[in-house]
Amino acid sequence: MELPFGWECQNGKPWQKLCRRGLSLPVFFREPSFQGSARSPHQHFRLSRTRVKRPEATRAFALRRFLARPREDRKLLLEAFCALALARAIALCLPFRRIARMIGDLGTDGPASLPSEQEDAAAKVGWAVAAMARYVPWDGRCLTQAIAGWRMLARRGIVGTVYLGVAGAPASSDKMVFHAWLRCGTKFVTGGNGRLHYTVLACFSRREKSHD
Prior knowledge:
Order of helices and strands: EEHHHEHHEEEE
Number of helices: 5
Number of domains: 2
């Protein structure tokens, strides 16, 4: 059950709401005090206390962590923020066929392995994109992250492959779930954790130029 802000539940239904206007006040819960009693659990309860974290406190904590990072990490996180914003604008304004042409050629898979320095750079890009996607005020889910990571890799001259997958019954399109992830060599830059639950529909990557 989804509860409104200020409510939390522990081993049962929420009992009382004391949190108002986002203040961090104690919240009490009804909880049975013993097992195996013939009496109603509403007649025996003990009170436990917890505190509700304010969204402002969470953002302040994230800002302190950001400022404590090394300078190179902060630059990478800011780049990931801008890449996510641009990727979200692209996903909203362009049809997918144009996005696919921008990312690469349909059916082209990138190299299975890359030099270690490129894969290490790709892993850092994936970390930055995943970290910033948790805090952006827009939809920063799989496709947005894949486009953002692809652009950041392209700026570094690194080849990446974007995969599109589907899970669900093909006969009922309303129950199908889509997912996008980005691979670079042996590293899954974005969306790699859930890829095994999806069947690959298409992949997009740039063909390597021949040097004849």
